[in-house]
Amino acid sequence: MVVAFDEARGIGEVEADGSAERFGFHCTRIAGGARSIALGATVAFEVGPGLLGRWEAAWLTEPGPPVSPGAGGRGGRAR
User: Fold this and answer.
1) What's the predicted TM-score (pTM) here?
2) Residue 62: its pLDDT value, please?
3) H or E element: which one contains 47?
4) Per-residue confidence band for 52, with pLDDT thresholds at 50, 70 and 90
5) Dihedral sign from CA coordinates of 69, 73, 74, 76
6) What count of other Cβ atoms lies within 10 Å of the Cβ of residue 5?
7) Distance CA 39, CA 15 (A)
8) Three-state DSSP class for residue 71
9) Region 26-51 average pLDDT
10) Any bridge partners for residue 47, and if so which?
11) What are the structural domains of the chain?
């Protein structure tokens, strides 16, 4: 979840589910080229070493709506 985001500076923090562990991120780490993200948004992210030697969040993505099997050509069984 996004727990902090300063749009003017382009930096924020995310918190891992079930943990008080927080990771910083820069807006360039948001997937899809977005430059901002809503405070409180539930996001998936990866953690890796940052430029300053600290662990940072990267590839922040907001989960899309669930897709039912067989809808839109996704899911279902192969024939």
Assistant:
1) 0.73
2) 86
3) strand 44-49
4) confident
5) positive
6) 20
7) 12
8) helix
9) 92
10) 57
11) 2-63 (2.40.50.140)
Beta strands in 1-79 (DSSP E): 2-6, 11-15, 22-26, 44-49, 55-61
**Residue 55 structure tokens:** 């662990």
Quote the CA–CA distance of 61 and 65 in Å, as a whole number: 13
- Residue 77's φ and ψ, nearest 5 degrees, are -105, 145
Q: Which residues contact 4 (CB under 8 A, 6 or more apart)?
A: 12, 13, 39
The tens digit of pLDDT for each residue in 18-28 reads 788 999 999 99
Distance CA 57, CA 48 (A): 7
The amino acid at 13: E
CB 59 within 8 A of CB 68: no
For the segment 27-50, the average pLDDT, to the nearest whole number, is 92
Q: Is the dihedral of CA 35, 43, 13, 46 positive or negative?
A: negative
Mean pLDDT for the chain overall:
83
Cα 70 to Cα 14: distance, rounded to the nearest angstrom? 34
